[in-house]
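For the sake of clarity, the format in which proteins appear in this thesis is described at this point. The fold follows as a row of integers, each naming the local backbone shape at the matching residue. One such record is shown here in full, so that the layout can be seen directly:
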Amino acid sequence: MRIIVGISGASGVVMGYALMRALRQREDCEIHLVVTDGARKTWDLETDLPFEKLVELADVCHSDANLAASISSGSFHTDGMIVIPCSMKTLSGIVAGYSANLLVRAVDVCLKENRRVILVPREMPFSKIHLRNLMDAADLGCTIIPPVLTFYNKLERTTDQVNHVIGKILMQLGMQYSEFSPWEGVDG
């Protein structure tokens, strides 16, 4: 399996790191990473981890400025792309088809090639513009997975909540995640 992970400049870049760690556990997964300049700045603001810790989880790390990278072409086969977190700027570029950077271009390629695209939007509250863009992205074929808190499995730590979101993302790609606690129902 070959997956593209895009990390944009919204708050929550640590979710991208958590996703990369989960994908890295799989021997059958080649990971292509693209990180925007905004995400690099947010990384420094939100985490004490060296940026290299994120990069070393990727098989290939592409410069967001390199519109000639392998992932910018439909002839380079991938199994899909996850943008986590997805900033509202990136979302608007996606729905407008404005491929000013590699991250948005890679999403555009996945959409035109009918490949899976999962967006993890990070904003609160959503404005009508955000909601319209999310609806447009869904109409284009994107799966929208906002990082919403879960309560049914009684997760108390932020890390557990992030793992829940990662599990939901990986389910969309047909992957299991050992740190995910699915609903198992109740006898009644």
